[in-house]
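Researcher: Re-running this chain for the archive, since the previous output was lost when a drive failed. Same request as before.
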Amino acid sequence: MRVTQAKLPTKLQSKLQSPLHSTPSRSTGRLPLLAGAVCVALAMAGCATKTTLGEKSSEVKDAGVTLDANKGAQTTTITQLQKFMWFFSPYRPDIQQGNFVSEEMLAQLKVGMTRDQVRFIFGTALLEDPFHGSRWDYPFRMAKGNGELTTSRVIVFFNKEGRVERWEGGNLPTEKEYIARIAGPAPQSKQDAKSDK
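Model: Regenerated structure tokens:
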């Protein structure tokens, strides 16, 4: 048995033709343009660029920002354009590195304390230089996911007997300020609000 395809009139054939074989219309011509615009927006958002955890941006290089213990905690914020473009960026977690030293901890440090007493207050020093055994460094760096960067450094110097001779660092955040930077400002309780009135 032989099967043959029925011949349809040309008007009916054009209506039944699949959309894959049809001639391109005006709406399909816009699709590559829309895809190109999305690619440009993603590229400008910084998906393929290095973040503050990698190479420093040109703004930071030109400013010559260095970590000075006498300046205390330093916070670098992002620009309004970076905040807007952050919408297109991938998720970036908050990263904390080093030893956080608060203003309250630094107030406990006194001249003449032993190394064990300093270790009890501040914790183990992140940097104990074998060439400078009389110096302990406590650097701290917190890079928030929104691009805000907070850095600080406290340096403790010891004399030959192993007692605190002096230290550098100050103008540090309190523990409440540090927690507010991590979790946001604390909500006021009803009792606190009544006592303020």
